Amino acid sequence: MAKILMVVSAADSLTMRDGSVHPTGYWAEELVASHHTLRDAGHTVDFATPGGVKPTVDQVSLTAEAAGSLEKADDFRAYIAAIDAELSHPLVLADVRTADYEAFVMPGGHGPMADLATDADLGKILIEADQAGRIIAPFCHAPAGLLSATDDNGTFLFTGRRLTVFTDEEDLTGGTGPNTPWFVETVLRDKGAIVESGPAWNSHVVRDRNLITGQNPQSSEDVAKEVIAALAE
Q1: According to the model, what pLDDT value does residue 153 have?
Q2: In the structure, what pLDDT confidence band is assigned to residue 215 with cuts at 50, 70 and 90?
Q3: Which run of H or of E encompasses 123?
Q4: How far apart, in whole angstroms, are the C-alpha atoms of residue 128 and residue 219?
Q5: According to the model, what pLDDT value does residue 152 have?
């Protein structure tokens, strides 16, 4: 079985286009569904955040409306509580040895836009992981973290790579709307990534060699399953 690093945002807020502060963090369904699926398959999953800070769950993601039902919201709360000891003591991202892990999984929420997108330690890990052919699997807003993988000459590591991400349409219609400070899909396209979007709010996973990406929260479990399949190859 493989060792997997789950890289989670440590941000608890996002500065919006109008300068206001929007509470955020990781999206419950994304962390829970992917973690549960990977662990149930027998893999070891460690958490890491910038600075080793305990990640914050986006409280909106724990509402019945966002989760899909009160029962699902309660299940997410229970699962997060069950792994609280692990979430409370994540690895410091700067201390991670890339060679220790076979896959790097990144759940979203808007948090990655606030920290992972510009985190030099994550950028180093992603560059090393890609060079070694290790699996890199961000989904929903977490592909924002891919933007950290830029070399000293400003070259974006994932230029020309196929991927998917939470779409501008989804952010405008069910995310943070027109006040969103920047749109991850647009920026990734501008950087040269080949973004392949599916229908809004439906699971959509894209694999380009060792890069596995998912479009939205609905893709969380399917991304994890694709990672499991890739690890078995």
Answers
A1: 83
A2: very high
A3: helix 120-131
A4: 26
A5: 78
Residue range 183-194, pLDDT digits in tens: 999 999 999 999
Full-model pTM = 0.97
Query: Which residues, in sequence order, are CB contacts of 56 under 8 Å at separation 6+?
Result: 10, 11, 12, 24, 25, 26, 111
Helix 28-40 and helix 220-231, axial crossing angle in degrees, nearest 10: 30
What DSSP state is assigned to residue 119?
-
3-state secondary structure of 130: helix
Question: Contact, 229 vs 194, CB < 8 A?
Answer: no
Share of the chain above pLDDT 90, in %: 97
Q: Please, which residues have CB within 8 angstroms of residue 164's CB and are 6 or more apart in sequence? A: 143, 195, 196, 197, 198, 204, 205, 206, 213, 214, 215, 219
How many angstroms separate the CA atoms of 132 and 196, rounded?
25
Distance CA 57, CA 18 (A): 23
The pLDDT score that the predictor gives to residue 57 is 98
Question: Long-range contact list for 227-232, CB < 8 A, 24+ apart?
Answer: 227/4, 227/38, 227/103, 227/105, 227/135, 227/137, 228/37, 228/38, 228/41, 228/43, 230/103, 230/135, 231/2, 231/43, 231/102, 231/103, 231/135
